[in-house]
Amino acid sequence: VYVDMKTGKFVLKLIRDDYDVDDLLVLDQSNISRVEGYTKQTLAELVNEVTISYDSNESGQTETITLQNLAMIQQQGAIIPANIEYPGFSNEAIALKVAARDLKALSTPLVSATIYANREAAGLNIGDVFVWNWTETDEEGAGVSTSYVMRVTEIAFGDGVDNVVRIQCAQDVFALPDTTYVEAEPTEWEDP
User: Minimal CA–CA distance to 136: which of 102, 113, 156?
Assistant: First the structure.
C-alpha cells in the first residue's frame, strides 16, 4: 500500500506475475550510484517443506496441505518445515497454488539490497518491479554479471538537495505459479 504521488490516493498494489521482463525499467551501473546491504540467503536460511492450513468448504473443517521441495531436502539433509495459516481460503485448488507459491518463495535464496539510483527510477512505487543488472568483481578479479527481477519494498525520492532515489528491494519470486503439478484429492467425507 502506498500513496500515489500524482493523485494523492492510496493504492493497493497486488503482487502478481503481470509484467513482461523486456518492458521493465533496467537499473545498472549507468543509473545506480551505489548499492548497500546486498544479501543473498544461505542454504541454512531456507525452508524446504510448507504446510498450509485453510478452512475447507467441502468438509467444513480446517484442512492442511503439505508440499516439499525434494531437491532442497536432499541438499540440506533434513526437512525444514514452515506452517502457514490461510483461514480466509476455502478452496483446495487455490490453497494448492498458494502452497506452491510459498514453497517457491521460501526455498529460493532471495537477493535483497538497497539501491541508490538517479531520477530514472523516480517512476517506481512500492510493489513495482524492475530489472537489476549488476557486475561485480570476483576473487580472481574477473567481472561477474548478474541480472535479477526485483520488487520495490520501500522507496524514498530524495530531500530536494540530493535527488537520489533510495530503493529497498527484494528478488521477485512471489507470483502464483501458472501450473501446479499437485492435484486436489477428492474428499471422502460425507455429511451425516
Answer: 113
C-alpha cell at 53: 492450513
Are the CB atoms for 137 and 68 separated by under 8 Å? no
Rg (CA), the chain: 20
Q: Given the C-alpha cell 498494489, which residue does it identify? A: 13
Which of 139-143's residues contact partners 24+ apart within 8 Å by CB, and which partners?
none
Digit-coded pLDDT (tens) for 67-115 = 888 888 898 888 999 999 998 888 888 888 888 888 888 888 888 999 9
In this structure, the number of other CB atoms found within 10 A of the CB of residue 35 comes to 16
- The structure's pTM equals 0.71
d(CA 190, CA 181): 27
> Distances in Å between the alpha carbon of 15 and those of 20, 45, 154?
14, 23, 14
Query: Cell digits for 26?
Result: 533496467
The per-residue DSSP string of 136-157 comes to EE-TTS-EEEEEEEEEEEEEE-
